[in-house]
Amino acid sequence: MNEWSYTVKIWAIRKREGRKHAFQLRWKVGTRPHSESFLTLGLAESRRAQLITASREGEPFDVESGLPKSMIVKTRDLSWYQHARNYIEMKWTDSPASTRRTLAEAMATVTPALVKDTKGMPDARTVRTALYSWAFNKNRWEEEPPADVARTLDWFKRKSLPTSALSDRLRVRAALNALSRKLDGKTAAAGTISRKRAIFHNALEYAIEAELLTENPLTRIKWKAPEKVDEEVDPACVPDPKQAGKLLAGVREQSARGRHQAAFFGCMYYAAARPAEVIGLRLSDCDLPRRGWGVLRLHDTWPRSGSSWTDSGEAHEKSGLKHRPRKTVRPVPIPPELVAMLRWHVTAYSTAPDGRLFRTSRGGLIQDTGYGEVWAEARRRALTAAQLGTALAKRPYDLRHAAVSTWLSSGVEPQLVAKRAGHSVAVLFRVYAKFLTDGDEAANAKISARLQGPQG
């Protein structure tokens, strides 16, 4: 580890007659003296100016070598390509598969902008495949890549800028502009840009820890994303209770696969559960009384990230609830309608050997492609021709939005809605803001009644 000091004294250059390198620069860092000899006076003055500038700008100096931090960084420099791989390796072990994919996507987007020149760079799609699927996927580092991928990665090893070059603000601005674009050159979604920028920022912070940079250049750049992040749910996507009922009926009326998945979609609508939370739901997680309300205890998610990104080699990876500590359990009261659906499902299909309620014909986890097909057919059966061309209930996830909006419009306190949906209250207000205005008239009436006071 380096010992740093801000106490620096630099003397004038002295000439020592009779020596080849006659011009000697002497300075002291802390109590440690240092010297360096040069062939010409100009070279000595240049180095002295570097040291004086670093000292005046408040840089710490390494006591052992006597050099300012910026010069130490350059002696340890790595290419951005290698640093990005080091960053991926550092994050890999403690990151779920879905996060690994997000990290790789960010690095694959920004790395092509951080090269010395673009002469000989392969086409954008080849570059994206090589970087995303190979360079920044640690699970494949021991595999032999295809020839075109190997050539592409060799090109980046040769052409990648040194990480220290990111002290140049224009280089960093180019990287920011790159992460705001999709592969086809169009502007990426605001949320995607925000996530990638955050990862890029974190990778630069890691460069500071590795002493490849002295400060994070992003803090010195005034850069605005092409569009503001809008997290609010669009009401046009959310089915009302009558439409949701028709959609669930459209699921049941299909083949045996549809009937098997009816309660799966029911959990999204009646319990506001995320699809990944329902996939691994077990009978032991459910209280299903013969009458009245029941309870689901949600504590796992099974997001599908792809087998090449998980440690197990399986497409899905088990993890805790989203944005919650690993052992958090979220109890959600469920109405008699869902209790009846789940009781019927257990009677008709029993459970998998591990107690899971929903499974494929081979006993595996339900795939998003499979239930996506069922949902698409349910829309065709339940919606009018005009509605089919809109965003109404376009995704199964819109059932969760429908559940939350129904709770809010029913007058359930936002704090309780947030708790059942697995949100913070702040996120609930931000995401479902448009649904919180439905009660304005009732609220206004209550305020008016209070202002008028008792009539006497």
Task: Please explain how this structure is put together.
The protein is α+β, with helices and mostly antiparallel strands and 456 residues long. It folds into three domains: 4-75; 80-220, no CATH class; 238-385, Intergrase catalytic core (hpI Integrase, Chain A). The chain is built from 18 helices and nine strands. Strands 2, 3, 4 and 5 form a four-stranded antiparallel beta sheet that branches. A three-stranded antiparallel beta sheet has the order 7-8-9. A two-stranded antiparallel ribbon has the order 1-6. It is elongated and about 105 Å long. The mean pLDDT is 90. Belongs to the 'phage' integrase family. Residues 304-329 are annotated as: Disordered.
Question: What is the fold's blueprint, element by element?
Answer:
Elements (H helix, E strand, L loop, with lengths): L3 E2 L2 E3 L3 E2 L7 E7 L2 E7 L2 H16 L4 E2 L6 H7 L4 H13 L4 H14 L13 H12 L11 H13 L9 H11 L10 H20 L31 H12 L3 H16 L3 H5 L6 E2 L6 E5 L31 E5 L1 H14 L18 H15 L2 H4 L9 H12 L4 H8 L3 H7 L8 H13 L4
Antiparallel strand pairs: 1-6, 2-4, 3-4, 4-5, 7-8, 8-9
Helix pairs in contact: 3-4, 4-5, 4-8, 5-6, 9-10, 9-13, 10-12, 10-15, 15-16, 16-17
Short description:
This protein is α+β, with helices and mostly antiparallel strands. The chain has 18 helices and 9 strands.
